[in-house]
TrEMBL record:
Keywords: Glycerol metabolism, Hydrolase, Signal. The keyword Cytoplasm does not apply. GO terms for molecular function: glycerophosphodiester phosphodiesterase activity. This is glycerophosphodiester phosphodiesterase. The lineage of its organism: Bacteria, Bacillati, Actinomycetota, Actinomycetes, Streptosporangiales. Gene3D superfamilies: Phosphatidylinositol (PI) phosphodiesterase (3.20.20.190). It comes from Streptosporangium canum. InterPro entries: GP_PDE_dom, PLC-like_Pdiesterase_TIM-brl. Belongs to the glycerophosphoryl diester phosphodiesterase family.
Length: 334
């Protein structure tokens, strides 16, 4: 049975990576909730999609932190803003979360200012209280290791403290880099997911070491065999499973799901969103000439049914309720 992962919680309905968002995901039937993990200055793991804070918090409205706005090079890209690693947890607690896409998701933006940045420990406690799993992503592992704030050790320590350290436990640890997952394989029995980008680039740790292996190489049979030596599965964009043509419509499915299954790997796909702007043209609904067309809901149920029909093992959805409903209907034979 494919798993349903609440992507950044239920980020279609509440500001992402907040306890509010995770709670709604659980209410909607998610099997797992997904925190993206970054570190604070005092080495506490918190959940943000990136370590720069201005896109999803009110930090720009805090004059006491104005002087900490800076520019950094992270994974080869230059970013200006405020960064989690420059703030203690106590300082981050003074911030409030905001919706990343307020125009697209005004109902979620109505919850701006109502939630803090959660810690990993709080997320684990919430998950265990409700009997669901967690699906953490280690963000920028090489970068955080380079500044003396590695994510992996505190992550494993926290999970072990709450009794999660076995392959049968409801945890998947994901990363776009390869080296940290290989190191984790010798440190834990928890299941690991190798994330693979949509483009033909090279994972950042391999790029830094001069390894020419690309993301396209990783999805070949040889690449999948290598991944199977340390990971339980792969996390890919939906276009890796069923490409989209220049007209936005779906093409023929690739062999990736079958190739991965032959190596004993699960295949989890991301990201499923309700809005027309995020759906293949086959599943968009309404009049494209209308101003609100791009943020109007399309036939996400049809898109999910298509993906489940391709035998994927899990979906990461901003609306986990839709993913759960379609899965349950298909299992029931509907």
């Amino acid at each position: 049975m494919p798993i349903v992962v609440g992507h950044r919680g239920a980020s279609a309905f509440r500001p992402e990576h907040t306890l509010l968002s995770y709670e709604v995901a659980i209410q909607l039937g998610a099997d797992y909730i997904e925190p993206d993990l970054v570190s604070t200055k005092d080495h506490v793991l918190v959940s943000r999609h990136e370590n720069e804070l201005s896109a999803t918090t009110d930090i720009a409205d805090h004059p006491e932190f104005a002087a900490r706005r800076t520019a950094k090079t992270i994974n080869g890209g230059r970013t200006t803003g405020w960064f989690t690693e420059d703030f203690t947890l106590a300082e981050l607690r003074t911030l409030r979360a905001r919706e990343r896409f307020p125009r697209r998701r005004p109902a979620s933006a109505a919850y701006d200012g109502k939630a803090q940045i959660p810690t990993l420990e709080e997320i684990v406690q919430l998950a265990q209280k409700h009997g669901v799993g967690i699906y953490p992503e280690i963000k920028y592992p090489s970068y955080f290791a380079s500044i003396g704030l590695p994510i992996e050790g505190p992550l494993l320590e926290t999970l072990r403290r709450y009794g999660w350290d076995d392959a049968c436990d409801p945890v998947f640890i994901q990363s776009f880099e390869t080296g940290n997952l290989k190191q984790l394989r010798s440190a834990t029995r928890l299941r690991l997911i190798q994330l693979i980008g949509a483009g033909s680039g090279t994972p950042y740790d391999l790029l830094q070491s001069g390894d020419p292996l690309t993301c396209d190489d990783l999805i070949t049979p040889a690449g999948l065999r290598q991944i199977a030596t340390y990971a339980a599965g792969i996390g890919v964009t939906t276009t890796r499973v069923v490409p989209v043509g220049p007209d936005g419509r779906l093409g023929a499915p690739t062999s990736l799901v079958q190739d991965a299954h032959q190596q004993g790997l699960q295949v989890h796909v991301a990201t499923i969103r309700d809005e027309n702007a995020s759906l293949p043209a086959n599943y968009r609904r309404g009049d494209p000439a209308r101003p609100a067309y791009s943020r109007a809901a399309g036939d996400v149920a049809g898109w999910l049914a298509r993906l489940y029909g391709l035998q994927v093992d899990g979906v990461l959805a901003d609306n986990p309720g839709a993913a759960r409903a379609v899965r349950d209907r298909l299992i029931a034979g509907g």
